[in-house]
From TrEMBL:
It comes from Mumia flava. Residues 44-167 form the Actinobacteria/chloroflexi VLRF1 release factor domain. This is Actinobacteria/chloroflexi VLRF1 release factor domain-containing protein. InterPro entries: eFR1_2_sf, VLRF1.
Amino acid sequence: MHGWTERFSARHGQAIVTRSGTRVTWTSPDGAIATYEDEPPLEDFGIVLVRRGGYAVGRVEDGRLVAHKTGTRYVQGRTKAGGWSQQRYARRRANQADALAGSAADHVVRLVPGDLRIAGGGDRALVAQVLTAADRTLDPGLRWLEVKEPRLASLERAVRDVRSYAVVLNEAARAR
C-alpha cells in the first residue's frame, strides 16, 4: 500500500486521511477522493475458479498457495443448428458442464476444508454449481475474480487479488 499512497500524493497533492472504523478515506486538495477498507490481509482461504472447459481449485495458508488442482473438461460451444439437433447439442453441453462441475467439486471437497472462506471467479453459474455439489458456500465479503482461463497462473494471481486492498476512486481521482 505504501507505493500507492506515494503515487496518489504525487498526482493529487498531500491528502487528508480520515478513518471511520476500518474505512480509510484520502481527500486531496484537487478534489480526488480514494477510499478502502483497512483490514488485515486474509491469510487462509480457498479459491474456486471455473469456466466452461476448465477449473482451478486452491487452498491458501499463511498467504501462500499450498495446495491446488487444475483441470480441463471439454464443453461444446453453442451451435447454430435448429430443431432437434439444437436441443440434442444443448443437452450434451449441459451434461458436459455437469461433468466439469462434478470434477471441480470433488477437488473442492478434497482440498478446501469446510471452515475456510472461499473466493470465486469465472462463470458465476458454474462456480455456484460446483460449490453446491461440494456443500460449500462462496464468501460474499470477498471480491469476485475475473478469470479468462482457470490455470495455475490464475490461482496465483487470485491469491494476490484476494489479499489486496480494493481502492475506490471518485471521478477526479480517475481523471489523472
